[in-house]
UniProtKB/TrEMBL annotation, chain A:
It comes from the Bacteria. The chain crosses the membrane at residues 6-30, 63-80, 92-114, 142-159, 188-211, 265-284. It is a multi-pass membrane protein. This is Branched-chain amino acid ABC transporter permease. Keywords: Amino-acid transport, Cell membrane, Membrane, Transmembrane, Transmembrane helix, Transport. GO terms for molecular function: transmembrane transporter activity. It comes from Oceanospirillum multiglobuliferum. GO terms for biological process: amino acid transport.
UniProtKB/TrEMBL annotation, chain B:
Keywords: Amino-acid transport, Signal, Transport. Residues 1-25 form the signal peptide. The keyword Signal applies. Coiled coil: none annotated. One of its GO terms (biological process) is amino acid transport. It comes from Oceanospirillum multiglobuliferum. This is ABC transporter substrate-binding protein.
Amino acid sequence: MSVEFLQYLFSGVTIGATYALVGLGFAIIYNASHVINFAQGEFIMIGSMATVSFLAMGMPMPVAILLAVALAVVTGMLLQKFAVAPAKNADVVTIIIITIGASILLRGLAQVFWGKSFHALPAFSGNEPINIAGATIVPQNLWVLGVTLVIVAAVSWFFTKTIIGKAILATSHNADAAKLVGINTNMILLFAFGLSALLGAVAGIIVAPITTTSYEVGIMLGLKGFVAAVLGGLGSGVGAIVGGLILGIAEAMAAGYISSDYKDAVPFVIILFILFFMPSGLFGSRGTERV
Amino acid sequence: MLKRVAIKGAMALAVSAALISGVQAADTIKIGSFLAVTGPASFLGDPELKTLQMYVDKINAEGGLLGKQVELVHYDTAGNAQKARTFVKRLIESDNVDLIVGGSTSGATLAVIPLVESAKVPFISLAGAVAIVDPVKKWVFKTPHTDRMAAEKIFEDMKSRGFKKVALISGTGGFGRSGRAQATQVIGKYGLELVADETYGPKDTDMTAQLTKIKSTAGVDAILNFGFGQGPAIVTKNYKQLGIDLPLYQSHGVASKKFIELAGNASEGVRLPAAALLLAEQLPDSSAQKPVVVKYKTEYEQKYNSEVSTFGGHAYDGLMLAVNAIKKAGSTDKEKVRAAIESTKNYVGTGGVVNMSAEDHLGLDLSAFKILEIRNGDWTLVK
């Protein structure tokens, strides 16, 4: 295995891990409501931009991060309460369009309050490169991977072991039946938006020291996260994570071995193939139409 | 019938209103402007507009120009070339401006050149591309250095350090593409050889793959990055991460403190060409530019409480060239003003010393650029 290959792999896994977190956010909301929340990217932006501005106010890093995540979660819940919930009888497509509108609004607000320039977060623990078999990474890469692992473990524990997690799963399988057994499905939706906002914000914060951030950082990351979610099979948590990693690695390899010009085309080529040959994604449940 | 009368009456009113405003316009000198104050190029348009407003107010407070008040008519293009065309049409046809200073981006400027050429209105552009003044267009001038000059200045420095092989990495945005084209064109003149040519998208967040390719290319002496926005900052960070121990050059596109802030300590030792404005107080006292740039810097920073940028400096130069030309022409007659701009000699501005001629509507030479090195998070002049 050559040094270059290893280097591309590290880059790909790091960026892929963030796609995975964003993709997981898409999957959770899709599961709970069958809506694709295109404002998911804005949670990434809110997380990282709010951290930057809290830091600028002189707060210590951990406090700034906690507050920024909290801000994103509240935004996510407000979005559900005041934009999505009032339209609950509308078509899924209508709700998707509402989320697109919400994302434009959030981006506009960010532009007004936080300005249009780029910002960098300081790395969590220094910038000294670490050498692994000739390839190098910065400590922040490890933070990205570590935090992603912890979050993924926590989310899977949440869905399989806690009562709220099980309630979300129940709602996703059959909302009416869930209501009949006494699950407050409105609360579940609110919760799902809050949780996916949390995932987005965390993803945004942990990569910001590597990628820098600005009011429009959510567009591309959100889109790639969406591709990751579709790639893995919409609604599948494992799928979103695997999808994110495949995407990140494929991009890095394409940039390294083919040409960096085609890098951004890779995700979309992959998704075309996947949708053509496996319409429900890698891990998606095969949809059956009942006549 | 009544309706038709009413419409005619309204039209007559509108015509007389237009006449009155036309009469009023004769009492002021109108400088038109179209800048990208919002949108992706707002980091250009924002300081440019602030500079124009500040100095137009100042000129008016000091008694105006040729005894008349100066009026700035400005439209925000949001970086959109199509909008720029519409606004310039409006500036020429309904605002009847005497001259135009504006066009933050090369795209917007190039889009309006046919309009100003056929309307015969003097136009001083604030955008970078060589194509604006090469070939020379009768009514079009510009103040910023070109990307070709930036590339030449960099290669000059590389040559003087004895480098032979250069690896290029550039953004695929307008600035990076144009810079790449110019760099590949002029590199031969300096006896240097391009051995790697990588690109990245303007919104990319990771360039380690491209830099790894450069790192594994044999014999590279120096790396050149052409781009602006956050791209060059990420390139610089990745370059540090990969432990590449080759000298890194950036273009004038990163000549703002924001770059040092974004790239952090990875930017130590990075070299770039930039206008004297960035150095201001650090310039040697013998420099003719020193009083000009120090004055502009203090005035701007006092008024707006934010760091001065070279882009605002381009607007300052554009406005001053226009003001000097109108003074010299003694009127706002468009042909006289145009000729006066073209005959500008030894104008000391923030961008350098300007000597225009019928063949040169930019008037700057390579000495207008200084090579800076980033040391301890600040610019230092490389001698």
